[in-house]
Amino acid sequence: MGCTQSKHEDEISVTERVMGGRRGIDKSERIHSRSEKEKLAAKRAKALAQASVENNDTDETPPKLTETGHLVAEEVAKRIKGSVESKETIVGDVKSGNDEDLIHIRYAALTQRGYYPDDPHKENQDDYFICGSKFGAGDGDAFFAVFDGHGDRGHDCARFAKNRLPPILAAKIKKQRAALNAKKIKAMTENKEQKPANAFHPSNWPYLDEKQYEDFCRQAHIQCNNEMHDDKNIKDFLSGTTAISVGFHAGRMTVSNVGDSRAVLGYRVGGDDLQGTPAEEEKKEISSEGDIEFVDATGVKYESGSIIAIPLSDDQTPYRKDERIRLEKAGARILTIDQLEGRKPIKDVEGLNLGVDIDTDGDMPRVYLKEHNYPGTAFSRSLGDAVAEGVGVNGEPELLTKKVTKGDEILVIASDGVFEFLTNQRMIDICAECEDPLHACTKLLEASYEQWLNYELRTDDITVIVLFLKSGKADDVAEVTRILNLSQKKPSMPLKTMASSSTHQLQT
């Protein structure tokens, strides 16, 4: 038999289908009573309305402004979305059975749509992703990421990266861990060893080592970038997105960075001797105060009990000499707008230690084609940006992996809307004064928004994820010092990377 369409389409909203010999007719294709159809129609309408709200957080009503041209508090509040409360999770080596191998995490996230006077209804081009547990089939795995889109279709690029990068990485991790487990079981069978109960269950799969996890992070970013180029619905010719993420696996955190978003660790010196939340520790009298714990590459001494900001990513911009050299070898011109328009002489760009210094001038160096005055990107790597990729602006991430230890108390993952006018240390200080991650997110939004109003007529999109960490692992002061010194050496030292050519040439 064929398909029959109801004659009363205004009364019956589903196709009634009867097929000879067909088994397992889908629930949505079954004949419904009138009341069932009304409930189904209402359910669908509600789902469509919710999807419309999620994909369209703007309306055409002119925003209310103060006499100085800024948004009133009510309008600012309407532009904020995200967590309604802090959440908790446990990651780390959950198979070991040792408490010191577990990492207790409380986390929250907020995003605030920016305001552009000449385009007051511009979409929020930031996005974020959170998987608090079982990322890649691992009970002790989690993944957190922030994406900052740019260009006319930046919001599409950020959303694409959010929807594709995490599942690509999760699939690679799951496949490799399953393969390692199969290999282990095969060896046990050949050796006639007793296999554990539920030997094939993901909870018994071996962990990846540091190199394997980093390799999959690199491959996932490159694959996501290539898929974005190939997707006809994503116009990434002159649009793209940054991507900053932190993956937790086997007691380690791996930071992957593409672009100029940022991950910053709040590390408490002498953390082995201290316990409690960051805010609680600030209230305690530290008996060892005044003792020097370690000295960084610049000679700065850090006292026990202090919380210091340690950048886990290095902004990929033309301010970095190593990135300028790489881009110029690929055929790019590096110029500020004043240099491009002839108001200043063309010379080598002066470096700026972003995260410590604030660029209040606003005329940052940008990336241009050799024969054309575009695209003008202020970053040296991104996902998307097909034109800029031709002169070296590729999607290969820089990577950094660190074991999570007692001193690691705060982790901030944010778009540049947060730290455009806030230093790394100021961000960590704000978080350290808060009792929970959602409070910290709120305070960071308020502080960064206030600074935007001090320097600009517009405000950028602002997105932040804050994690409060608690680990039983002993600190490795030498490793912490090494990571801190990476960001303080001049010229800026690149983190782990594989190549300097087009991303399409890096596909694995």
Which labels suit this protein?
508 residues; alpha+beta; 7-stranded antiparallel β-sheet; 12 helices; 20% strand; globular; disordered N terminus; disordered C terminus
Structure characterization notes:
This protein has helices spanning 34-55, 73-78, 154-190, 210-230, 278-283, 321-329, 337-340, 386-389, 416-419, 424-432, 437-455, 477-486, and strands at residues 80-82, 87-92, 102-112, 126-131, 142-150, 240-241, 243-249, 252-258, 262-268, 292-295, 301-303, 307-311, 333-335, 366-368, 375-377, 383-384, 398-403, 408-414, 462-471. The chain has 508 residues and is α+β, with helices and mostly antiparallel strands. The longest helix is centred in the middle third of the chain and has 37 residues, at 154-190. The radius of gyration is 25 Å and the shape is globular. Mean pLDDT is 83; it is low at 1-32, 283-290, 490-494 and 499-508.
Number of strands: 19
Q: What composes the largest sheet? A: 7 strands, antiparallel
**What structural category characterises the helix and strand content?**
alpha+beta
Q: What number is the mean pLDDT?
A: 83
End-to-end separation? 49 Å
Oligomer: single chain
* Principal-axis shape: globular
Low-confidence stretches: 1-32, 283-290, 490-494, 499-508
Brief characterization of the structure:
The chain has 508 residues and is of the alpha+beta class.
Chart the SSEs and their pairings:
Elements: H1 34-55, H2 73-78, E1 80-82, E2 87-92, E3 102-112, E4 126-131, E5 142-150, H3 154-190, H4 210-230, E6 240-241, E7 243-249, E8 252-258, E9 262-268, H5 278-283, E10 292-295, E11 301-303, E12 307-311, H6 321-329, E13 333-335, H7 337-340, E14 366-368, E15 375-377, E16 383-384, H8 386-389, E17 398-403, E18 408-414, H9 416-419, H10 424-432, H11 437-455, E19 462-471, H12 477-486
Antiparallel strand pairs: 1-3, 2-3, 3-19, 4-5, 5-6, 5-7, 6-16, 7-8, 8-17, 9-12, 9-18, 10-11, 13-14, 14-15, 18-19
Helix pairs in contact: 3-4, 10-11
